[in-house]
C-alpha cells in the first residue's frame, strides 16, 4: 500500500550504485533520489543503462556495489520491501499467456500478500482504472500489444505502490491510450506515488515528468528539474550528451 | 505466505494448460491397460497360487505391480514409475524455463521472493499434481478391495516408495528447468537424468553384483525395497537426500540468475 512517508525521507535513494553485465559496466557510480509524488523521466540512448537501472530499483537484479534505500530502509538487506513498495512494468509486459487478466491480478495480489475481499477489491479497482473490466476473463495470450501493456500496468498498480517503475510504458499504445496513460501518471503523482519513467521519447518526458535524468554509457550525465515548455532545451541537452558520448567513443 | 502464492500460481498454470490434462489422461489410460493385464494374469493363476502356503496374492501381483516393472518380471506396459520418467519431465519442463523465456522470472524476483521460495513453491505445485495422479492410479486396484484381500501395509509401503520416486523425479525436473533456457532442453535433460538414476546399476546387476556404491546410487534399489513392503529409514533418507541435492542445485542456479541478470 501507498505508505505514508515523511517528507524528509525520499521514497528512493541510490548511492554510488554500480552493476556490470556481460563483463561490461552497465551502470557506474549512480546516485539518485526521488521524493513522494515526483515523476522522474529517465532518458538515454540504447545501451545507456536505463533498463539495468530499473531492474536494480525493482529488485530483479542485485548491484555489484552501492546502496539502495526505499523509504529510508536498506533495500538490499530487506528485499521483501519491494513486495509492498514497488510496482514494476518491465519493457514488453511479461505475462503468463495461459492465464486470464483476472488470474494475473489474483496472482500478483497473492504474491504481494493480498487475499480474500482485499484481493478482489484491489483487482476490481485497477481493472476499472485501466479500463480492462470487459476483458477480465480474456487470456493474456490473445491480447493485443496495447492490452498487454495495460495489463502489465494494472499488475504493477494493484498494490498501490509508493514507487512505480515503468520501462517504456507507452510502447504499443495508440495515441488515445498514450494520453490516458499521461493522465493516469499525473493522477498517481497527485496521490503521492513517485514514478520513474524510462523512455526513448522526449515528448513523453516533457508531457508528464517534473524532473529528468539522462544516462549515457551507464553514467548519470544530467539530473535536473524540468520546467514546463522546455522541450527544446531538453532536446538540446539530450543530443549534446548523446552525440558527445559517441564522438568520444569514436 | 508468498511460497504458497507461487504454488497456487504454478498449480493454476498446470491445470489450465492442455498438456497436463493430456499426459495425465493418457498415462492413466495406459495404467488401466496394465491393470487389466495384471488382473487377467492373476485370475489365470489363481488356482495354482491358492495351493501355495505363502503364495503371493492380489496385493503383490496386481496392486503393487501397477507401480513399477521392477518386480513384474514380464513384458507388460509401463508402470507408474516408468511412465513418470516421461510424464514428470513434460510436467516440469516449463516451471522455470518458460518463466525465463517469457520474462516473468525477474517479475517474481521483484516481489522480494528468494530463489529458494520460488523453486520450492513450484516444486510443491508439481508434487500436488503428481500426488493426485498417483491417487487416481491407485484408486483402480483399491476399488476391488471389497472382493479381494488387500495387504494394506504392503500397499502403503509401495505407495510411499512410488511417491518418493515421483518426488525425486519432480525435484530433478524442476532443477533441470532452472538450468535450461528452453523447456524442451529441460525435458530432455530431466528424462536422461531420470533414466540414469533408475538404471545406473544395470551393468552391476547383470554382472551379479547386488551391493556397493553403484547399487546404492540407483533409485530402483531403494524403491524396490519399499515395493516389497519393507520400509527402511536408510532408503527414505536416500530419497530425501536426492530431493535436497536436486532442489539445492536448482536454487543455486536461480540465485545466480538474479546475480547475473
Describe this structure in words.
The complex is a heterodimer of chains A (250) and B (261). By secondary structure, chain A is α/β, with parallel strands linked by helices. Chain A has a domain at 12-91 and 162-249: Rossmann fold (3-Layer(aba) Sandwich). Chain A has helices spanning 50-58, 81-85, 101-111, 116-129, 145-157, 175-190, 202-208, 231-249; strands at 12-21, 24-34, 39-43, 65-70, 73-74, 86-89, 163-167, 194-198, 211-216, 219-225. In chain A, the strands form two sheets. Chain A has a six-stranded mixed sheet, sandwiched between helices. Chain A has a four-stranded antiparallel sheet with strand order 2-1-4-5. The radius of gyration of chain A is 18 Å and the shape is globular. The N and C termini of chain A lie far apart (48 Å). The model of chain A is unreliable at 1-6 (pLDDT under 50). Chain B has one domain. Helix content of chain B is 77%, strand content 0%. Chain B is globular and about 70 Å long. The two termini of chain B are 26 Å apart. The relative contact order of chain B is 0.14. The A-B interface holds A 19, 21, 52, 55, 58-62, 79-83, 86, 88, 90, 92, 94-99, 103, 107, 110-113 and B 2, 5-6, 8-9, 12-13, 16-17, 102-104, 106-114, 258-261. Chain B: It comes from Dyella nitratireducens. Chain B: Its main location: membrane. Chain B: The chain crosses the membrane at residues 21-44, 64-91, 123-144, 156-180, 187-216, 236-256. Chain B: It is found in: Membrane. Chain B: InterPro entries: ABC2_TM (IPR013525).
Strand content of chain A: 15-25%
Spans of chain A with pLDDT under 50 lasting ≥5 residues? 1-6
Distance between the termini of chain B: 26 Å
The shape of chain B, in one word, is: globular
How do the SSEs of chain A run, as a string of H and E?
EEEHEEHEHHHEHEHEEH
Mean pLDDT of chain A: 89
Spatial ordering of strands, largest sheet of chain A: 6-7-8-3-9-10
Number of strands of chain B: 0
Give the biggest beta sheet of chain A: 6 strands, mixed
Task: Using the CA coordinates, give the radius of gyration of chain A.
Answer: 18 Å
Amino acid at each position: 500500500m501507498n505508505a505514508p512517508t515523511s517528507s524528509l525521507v525520499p521514497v528512493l535513494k541510490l548511492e554510488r550504485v554500480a552493476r556490470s553485465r556481460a563483463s561490461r559496466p552497465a551502470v557506474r557510480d549512480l546516485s539518485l533520489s526521488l521524493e513522494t509524488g515526483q515523476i522522474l523521466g529517465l532518458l538515454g540512448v540504447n545501451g545507456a543503462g536505463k533498463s539495468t537501472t530499473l531492474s536494480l530499483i525493482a529488485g530483479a537484479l542485485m548491484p555489484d556495489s552501492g546502496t539502495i534505500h526505499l523509504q529510508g530502509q536498506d533495500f538490499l538487506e530487506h528485499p521483501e520491501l519491494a513486495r509492498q513498495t514497488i510496482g514494476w512494468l518491465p519493457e514488453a509486459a511479461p505475462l503468463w499467456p495461459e492465464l486470464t487478466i483476472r488470474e494475473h491480478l489474483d496472482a500478483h495480489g497473492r504474491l504481494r500478500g493480498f487475499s480474500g475481499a482485499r484481493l478482489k477489491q484491489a483487482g476490481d479497482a485497477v481493472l476499472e482504472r485501466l479500463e480492462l473490466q470487459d476483458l477480465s476473463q480474456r487470456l493474456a495470450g490473445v491480447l493485443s500489444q496495447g492490452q498487454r501493456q495495460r495489463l502489465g500496468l494494472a499488475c504493477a498498480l494493484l498494490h498501490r505502490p509508493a514507487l512505480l517503475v515503468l520501462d517504456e510504458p507507452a510502447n504499443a499504445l495508440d495515441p488515445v491510450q498514450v494520453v490516458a496513460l499521461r493522465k493516469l501518471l499525473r493522477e498517481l503523482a497527485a496521490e503521492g506515488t513517485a514514478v520513474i519513467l524510462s523512455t526513448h521519447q522526449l515528448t513523453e518526458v516533457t508531457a508528464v515528468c517534473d524532473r529528468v535524468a539522462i544516462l549515457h554509457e551507464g553514467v548519470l550525465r544530467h539530473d535536473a528539474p524540468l520546467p514546463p515548455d522546455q522541450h527544446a532545451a531538453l532536446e538540446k541537452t539530450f543530443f549534446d550528451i548523446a552525440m558527445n558520448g559517441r564522438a568520444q567513443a569514436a | 505466505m508468498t511460497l504458497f502464492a507461487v504454488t497456487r500460481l504454478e498449480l493454476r498454470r498446470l491445470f489450465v494448460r492442455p498438456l497436463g490434462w493430456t499426459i495425465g489422461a493418457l498415462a492413466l489410460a495406459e495404467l488401466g491397460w496394465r491393470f487389466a493385464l495384471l488382473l487377467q494374469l492373476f485370475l489365470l493363476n489363481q488356482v495354482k497360487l491358492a495351493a501355495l502356503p505363502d503364495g503371493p496374492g492380489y496385493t503383490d501381483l496386481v496392486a503393487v505391480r501397477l507401480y513399477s516393472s521392477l518386480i513384474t518380471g514380464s513384458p507388460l506396459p509401463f508402470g507408474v514409475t516408468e511412465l513418470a520418467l516421461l510424464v514428470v519431465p513434460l510436467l516440469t519442463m516449463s516451471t522455470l524455463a518458460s518463466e525465463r523465456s517469457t520474462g516473468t522470472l525477474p517479475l517474481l524476483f521483484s516481489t522480494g521472493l528468494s530463489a529458494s521460495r520460488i523453486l520450492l513453491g513450484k516444486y510443491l505445485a508439481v508434487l500436488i499434481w503428481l500426488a493426485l495422479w498417483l491417487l487416481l492410479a491407485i484408486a483402480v486396484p483399491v476399488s476391488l478391495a471389497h472382493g479381494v484381500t488387500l495387504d494394506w501395509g504392503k500397499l502403503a509401503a509401495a505407495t510411499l516408495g512410488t511417491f518418493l520416486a515421483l518426488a525425486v523425479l519432480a525435484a530433478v525436473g524442476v532443477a533441470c528447468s532452472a538450468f535450461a533456457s528452453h523447456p524442451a532442453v529441460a525435458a530432455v535433460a530431466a528424462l536422461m537424468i531420470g533414466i540414469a538414476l533408475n538404471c545406473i546399476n544395470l551393468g552391476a546387476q547383470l554382472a551379479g553384483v547386488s551391493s556397493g556404491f553403484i547399487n546404492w546410487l540407483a533409485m530402483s534399489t531403494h524403491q524396490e525395497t519399499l515395493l516389497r513392503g519393507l520400509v527402511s529409514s536408510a532408503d527414505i533418507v536416500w530419497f530425501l537426500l536426492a530431493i535436497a541435492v536436486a532442489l539445492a542445485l536448482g536454487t543455486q542456479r536461480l540465485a545466480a540468475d538474479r546475480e547475473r541478470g
